[in-house]
Amino acid sequence: MNLDDEAFEPFMGMLRLCSKIEVVGEGVVIDTKDVIDHCMVEAIRELRQDMVFKYPGDYAYIMIAANEEAIKGMRFFYSPKEYLDYMRQLEVSTIPGRTTIYDAIARTHGRYPNWTFTDHPSETEILRRKNVVRRFMSAFTRAKLNVSDCFSDNR
């Protein structure tokens, strides 16, 4: 339950009058959407810092994997435009264009991690593309754990 600060004490007072109701905990609850957004930004920042993105189309592999539910907690994107609008909303700078994302999606077939590509990349390039997603999943999970630590019971 989410209560404004001024409503908290009166509400708790009413609960104390009800002997059959037990308050088992009080704490800060974080909005899951905000957590996912934060983790997305942090994961992209980490991949950029580590120079994982070699080509602008690499961002498409994250969208594809999210839509295949390979990345736990990520939302589904109905189109590259929606995905790029989401990235802009998160204030992710220097994102590729819509055509770049469409082209990368069009050449990717199968389900992650068993993707095949119609542009016939080398085995090394296939592995690199799949590793973009692996690295993103790792960074995304790490970011989720860091956010969870911030809101643990030790606070």
Q: Average pLDDT value?
A: 86
β-sheet strand percentage:
under 5%
For the secondary structure, the number of strands is: 2
Straight-line distance between termini: 19 Å
| Uncertain parts | 28-32, 151-155
Helix content: 55-70%
Order of helices and strands: HHHHHEEH
Task: From the alpha carbons, calculate the radius of gyration and give it in angstroms.
Answer: 21 Å
Number of helices: 6
Total individual domains: 1
Task: Kindly name the structural category.
Answer: mainly alpha
| Sheet of most strands | 2 strands, antiparallel
In the sheet with the most strands, the strands line up as: 1-2
Rough outline = elongated
Question: What does this 3D model show about the protein?
Answer:
The chain is an all-alpha fold and 155 residues long. The chain is 56% helix and 3% strand. Strands 1-2 form a two-stranded antiparallel ribbon. The C terminus is likely disordered.
